[in-house]
Each structure stands twice: as structure tokens, then as C-alpha cells.
Write a structure and sequence with these properties.
Elements (H helix, E strand, L loop, with lengths): L1 H21 L8 H24 L7 H18 L6 H23 L5 H23 L1 H7 L6 H30 L1 H15 L8 H4 L9 H10 L5 H9 L13 E2 L14 E2 L10 E4 L2 E3 L1 H16 L5 E4 L4 H14 L2 H5 L15 E5 L12 H9 L5 E5 L4 H4 L4 E7 L2 H9 L5 H9 L5
Parallel strand pairs: 1-2
Antiparallel strand pairs: 3-4, 5-6, 6-8, 7-8
Helix pairs in contact: 1-2, 1-7, 2-3, 2-7, 3-4, 3-5, 4-5, 4-7, 5-6, 10-11
Bound molecules: zinc ion.
Zinc ion (ZN) binds next to strand 6.
């Protein structure tokens, strides 16, 4: 937004200067041309703003890039007199593509060359559409193009676009400076602040006493706390550590949990496994269902005790490959809205079932919905931790997990973790990982 406002101000200033300079010297101002020129400049600045906010998170959304470039191609033949100004459009497009590549490279460490193709398709389509419009409404075009005798104005108006380009360049430099020296600059600023707050103001000090607070996230804690005034400082900190101040699936905060282990623990909407991930070992658990050996033996102990109390549960789902999850997820997408599907079905790669440690169980074979409220569900909820299992998607944690209450979904995490969570009243694996795995409790 800041960039947009700065750009807007610079355009207004420039237009005023131009107006004062030429008005009264016998030059007539072509108001329509000026209007379109300003619109064009504003649009370019909007594109820059958009790139800054979004592109680094959606580096594969090529359709959006194509759409953004259509007006660029369209406005040019409408504003300028000669079609050879097509060249100018091309220069714009290349500059914008370079900006996209720089942002992509800084954000995700690689560039997507298809951006080039899609932006040019967009710009060519726009140029074609603009040309057709000109042919269809020649009077309109005549009224806005600049005549040769107003050469001075023509030149001056190019300056506006020049400002846009300079602005883009300036933005690129700011962005690069932020990213290249990024952490150092931020840290320096933060040190200065916390130093100056050593006196009465305890602004940052509240985080210093929390062992799982990360110094480089103090700003994020502050802004999350601002949005959740009733939340305890501890909860703010572990939630931000778990990236809950970000959108689910935000690429910038997504990690491959199987990067250096074949037994990834935390799988959620920020921690995924790679496409070809397979658990280190799978054995049969019930029917054709498979799970890791630890899961199977813990589950056997669990159902033994459950059955001793006269109850019975069945496995309804266990290990799923990423490919299988893809088919399942797409199947759900056929009947439900995307937003709804996301609350009960994980995207492929993001399902805990990939680990071979997650089980869906029910006392009615193949019917998960029947489980909620049953005696069996109660028993599992109360006792699963004794066998190393946790109920993963609790009703109280839907905003942490991003999933609806799933009483049937249990996951084997080992007795050490499940018992600690039980004893310390830790409701979700996200909180446990922040407090016991990512940080060492003093
Ligand atoms: Zn499940």
C-alpha cells in the first residue's frame, strides 16, 4: 500500500508540474490522453504492488500473471499514436518479468521461465484487443492520440511512464536490499529497540522470559497479540512459532518434514512430505490396511484393553500414499466447495496418513460419522495417550489444525510425547513441537 500511495503522489505531482508548465504557453492539454496516461501509470504501480504482496507466494499462478498483463497490452495502442509503440509495450513486459524473476528468486530461490511466456501471451492478447477497439471506434482514438504539433507534450507524457519505470527500479532495489541484508538490518533495528526499552517499558522483555520465543519473531508476536488481545503471551508465542499468524499452505513457511528423516513427526498445513515419501516400513494392521510396526503394536495393546471392556472398534483408514490422497482429495472436490473440503481432507502431501502412524477408527465398520459421541469414542479420547496415541484434531483446536473435530483420527506419536502432552495439558502436537522439539526446555 505504501508503494502505491508513493506512486500516486508522484504522479499527481508530476501531472501538476506538467500542467503548470504548459498551460498558458499556448499548448492545449489533451485531457483524455492525460487521463488514460494516469490510469496506465496507476495500473502499473498496482501491478508492482501486487507482485510485492502476492507473487512470492504464488510463483506458479501463471494465469494471474497473464491476466495482469492484458491491460498493459491493451492500453498502449489506445494511448499512443503509432503502432510502433508496440516496442514500448515489449520493454515494459520485459522489465516486469525481470522484476518477477528477482522476487521469485529471492522468495523461493528459483525462477519460473514460463512467466515470460504467459506475460507475453497476456500482453499480445491485450494489444490485439486494444487494436480491435481502435478500429471499431476510430473517433474515440482520434480524440485521445497526440498530434505531432504537440510534440512537447508528447515527450512530457512519456515522462510519466518513465517515472513508473524508475519507481519499479527503486522498488526492486528496496526489495533487494531488504532481502540481501535482511536479517542483519532487522536484527540491528530490533536490538536498538530492545536496548532503548531496557528502562521502564517492558515491551520486548515479556518475550525474553519465554524459552520458546525466537528473537527474530518479536515483531510477529506483537502483531498477533494485537489481533488476539485476550490470548496469553505464551499462547501467542507458540502459535506464531507454529506459523499460525500466516495463511495455511503459505509456501514461504512450508517445510518438507521428511527432508532429513524417514520418520517425520509433525505433518500439518505448513509441514508436508515429498511426493514420493514412503514410511520406512509398513505392516498389516487390519484387513488390507497398513501402518508402521510401532503403530501396529501400540494399537493392538489399545484394542485389547478396549475389548476387555466389552467394546470394539475397526480401522477405517490407515497409511495412504500421496498419490492415493490426491485421488481422494480430488474426489471430495467434486461434491464440496474447496473451502469446505480443506477442513476435512488434507491436500496430497499434507496428510498425516502418509506417515503410516495415523489411523481412522470407528465402532461401525466403514462409518466414521457414527463414532462421535459413542462410548468407544469416549474411551479412546480418555485412554489413547496410555498407548502412545493422541486424538489429533480436537474440537478446541480447529483453528490450530485447520481441520474440523475428528474424534476418529488418532496418530501414534510414542508414549513419551503422548504422556507429556497429557500431563502438561498440551492439546495439540503443534504446541508440543514448539515447546519440546524446536526449543529445549531449560
Ligand atoms: Zn484421518
Amino acid at each position: 500500500m505504501l508503494y502505491f500511495l508513493l506512486g500516486l503522489l508522484s504522479i499527481i505531482a508530476l501531472q501538476s508540474i506538467l500542467f503548470m508548465q504548459y498551460y498558458g504557453r499556448g499548448y492545449r492539454i489533451n485531457k483524455k490522453h492525460m487521463f488514460f496516461s494516469v490510469i496506465f501509470s496507476l495500473y502499473m504501480i498496482y501491478v508492482i504492488e501486487f507482485l510485492h504482496d502476492k507473487i512470492i507466494h504464488m510463483n506458479t499462478d501463471l494465469i494471474m500473471i497473464m491476466l495482469l498483463f492484458i491491460p498493459v497490452g491493451m492500453l498502449m495502442p489506445m494511448i499512443y499514436r503509432r503502432y510502433r509503440n508496440f516496442l514500448l509495450v515489449m520493454v515494459y513486459t520485459v522489465l516486469m518479468d525481470i522484476l518477477i524473476f528477482i522476487l521469485q528468486n529471492l522468495a523461493v530461490g528459483r525462477i519460473n521461465l514460463l512467466v515470460l511466456l504467459f506475460s507475453f501471451v497476456g500482453v499480445l492478447f491485450g494489444f490485439f484487443a486494444g487494436t480491435v477497439l481502435n478500429r471499431t471506434f476510430p473517433e474515440f482514438r482520434k480524440s485521445i492520440i497526440l498530434k505531432k504539433r504537440k510534440k512537447k507534450i508528447l515527450f512530457a507524457l512519456y515522462e510519466i511512464e518513465l517515472v513508473t519505470i524508475c519507481f519499479a527500479a527503486l522498488f526492486m532495489m528496496i526489495s533487494m536490499a531488504e532481502n540481501i541484508s535482511g536479517k542483519n538490518l532487522n536484527k540491528k533495528l530490533k536490538d536498538t529497540i530492545s536496548y532503548s526499552h531496557n528502562g521502564d517499558d517492558k515491551r520486548w522483555n515479556i518475550y525474553d522470559s519465554i524459552y520458546y520465543a525466537d528473537e527474530d519473531k518479536y515483531g510477529r508476536y506483537e502483531s498477533y497479540a494485537g489481533k488476539h488481545p485476550d490470548m496469553s503471551v505464551e499462547e501467542v508465542v507458540w502459535r506464531v512459532d507454529a506459523n499460525l499468524d500466516k495463511e495455511f499452505y503459505d509456501e514461504e513457511y512450508t517445510k518438507y518434514a521428511d527432508a532429513d528423516t524417514d520418520k517425520p513427526l509433525l505433518i500439518n498445513k505448513f509441514n508436508r512430505v515429498s511426493e514420493d515419501f514412503e514410511p520406512y516400513r509398513l505392516i498389516k494392521i487390519e484387513g488390507d490396511y497398513e501402518a508402521t510396526p510401532e503403530t501396529v503394536s501400540a494399537y493392538k495393546r489399545l484394542i485389547e484393553d478396549l475389548e476387555a471392556e466389552g467394546m470394539k472398534i475397526y480401522v477405517v483408514s490407515a497409511y495412504r500414499s500421496v498419490a492415493y490422497q490426491k485421488r481422494l482429495h480430488n474426489y471430495y472436490l467434486k461434491s464440496d466447495e474447496k473451502e469446505v473440503v480443506e477442513t476435512y481432507s488434507a491436500r496430497p502431501g499434507y496428510s498425516e496418513h502418509h506417515t503410516g502412524r495415523a489411523l481412522d477408527v470407528s465402532q461401525v465398520y466403514n462409518n466414521l460419522d457414527a463414532f462421535e459421541g459413542s462410548d468407544e469414542a469416549d474411551w479412546v479420547y480418555k485412554n489413547a495417550y496410555k498407548y502412545g496415541f493422541i486424538v489429533r484434531y480436537k474440537a478446541s483446536q480447529t483453528d490450530v489444525t485447520g481441520y474440523i473435530f475428528e474424534p476418529w483420527h488418532i496418530v501414534y506419536v510414542g508414549e513419551e510425547i503422548s504422556r507429556t502432552m497429557h500431563d502438561e495439558n498440551i492439546e495439540t502436537l503443534e504446541e508440543y513441537v514448539v515447546k519440546y522439539i524446536d526449543h529445549v526446555k531449560p
